[in-house]
Amino acid sequence: xxxxxxxxxxxxxxxxxxxxxxxxxxxxxxxxxxxxxxxxxxxxxxxxxxxxxxxxxxxxxxxxxxxxxx
Length: 70
Known about the structure:
Elements: E1 4-9, E2 12-17, H1 22-28, E3 36-40, E4 43-44, H2 47-52, E5 60-65
């Protein structure tokens, strides 16, 4: 069993420890999970799903920062 996985986030490849959670990955790239919306493999994640999701090799993420304004 592999100890690392490869994912793609916003077009950039990342090698991560197997079993890493999405919220931990976001923290390592300097993003606060509460301030982003994540699409995983073409499906938007709810905030609850984003908090508990475990990343898998081959996952493709699109991460968008939430910006408030008027």
